[in-house]
Design a protein that fits this description.
The chain is α/β, with parallel strands linked by helices and about 280 residues long. The protein contains 11 helices and 10 strands. The strands form 2 sheets. A 6-stranded mixed beta sheet has the order 6-7-8-3-9-10, sandwiched between helices. Helix 5 runs parallel beside helix 7, helix 6 crosses helix 7 and helix 7 runs parallel beside helix 8.
């Protein structure tokens, strides 16, 4: 099994091939034998009196693709923001890649270098070119030389299929292109885990597929991914585990085959009926 996105880089000359259904099923069967890379136990999060996350118990294994869905306000974004210290949980235990995550942890700076995140908004520096947006993190945080940072940036621009946009500014790109730049920017940091917070929700409909195609390729490379999305076609294609949240709780967690065809909770069934109706 390929771990991280090393396999993506090594296959640059051959390109990526879709995994056959049998291979995907075998990968899911092996997933439980992989080492846990995210472990949340009895996790709670409050905003004042508002109980945003309630007794969350969740394990993501190395190389696993987990998709989290649920109605607005259910705690999906809050949960994955806890995974890289953008939000702090109030009680419980959270371990990411062997590091316990809490406000006083001295290892958070290093951990954030290992956990990439792609947001709803692209958050690109408007005064920098695409290439410069990709180079600045590796140069300042990982202390890469300018030449090595540029080489890495061009490699990942090629992998997200926009090498010709390197010298343009964000305002000159479409929304889909900007989001692909944001994905490439995270990959340039040589991350081991990628978090996606509804990455297509701010895009026009015709731009959604170009971003999802890149995410599918990334999933097939073996990257550990946790994705908050309502793009159920994408979820069916890449997810090893589907999670449904409501009111700050995990209501359902299951392989996609069972999640979509025979969910155990009535609330999850109703949500899927509504979201898959059209």
């Amino acid at each position: 099994m390929l771990h991280g996105h090393e396999g993506w880089r090594k296959d640059a000359q051959k390109g990526l091939r879709p995994l056959a259904g049998a291979v995907v099923a075998g990968r899911r069967e092996l997933m439980t034998n992989a080492a846990p890379i995210i472990e949340a136990t009895h996790l709670d999060k409050f905003y004042g009196d508002f109980h945003a996350l309630k007794d969350i118990a969740l394990t993501v294994h190395q190389g696993e693709k987990m998709v989290i869905c649920g109605p607005s306000g259910s705690g999906k974004s809050t949960l994955i923001r806890c995974f890289n210290g953008l939000e702090w949980h109030n009680s419980g235990r959270l371990v990411i890649d062997g590091i316990e995550v809490h406000e006083q942890s001295r290892q958070m700076r290093g951990l954030r270098q290992e956990v990439g995140m792609v947001f709803q908004q692209f958050n690109l520096f408007p005064h920098l070119t695409v290439l410069e947006n990709l180079m600045i993190g590796p140069m300042k945080v990982r202390r890469l030389s300018r030449a090595k940072a540029e080489e890495t940036a061009r490699t990942y621009l090629d992998r997200v299929h926009i090498p010709e946009q390197a010298d343009k500014y964000p305002a000159q790109l479409s929304g889909g292109q900007q989001q692909r730049v944001a994905i490439a920017r995270s990959l340039c940091m040589e991350t081991r885990i990628m978090l996606f917070d509804e990455p297509t929700s701010a895009l026009d409909p015709e731009m959604i597929n170009e971003v999802l195609d890149v995410m599918v390729e990334l999933a097939q490379s073996g990257m550990t991914m946790v994705v908050v999305t309502h793009e159920m076609g994408f979820a069916r294609k890449v997810a090893d585990t589907m999670v449904f949240m409501e009111a700050g709780r995990i209501v359902e967690s299951a392989p996609p085959e069972r999640f979509f065809t025979n969910p155990s909770s009535e609330r999850c069934r109703l949500f899927l009926d509504q979201i898959l109706e059209y």
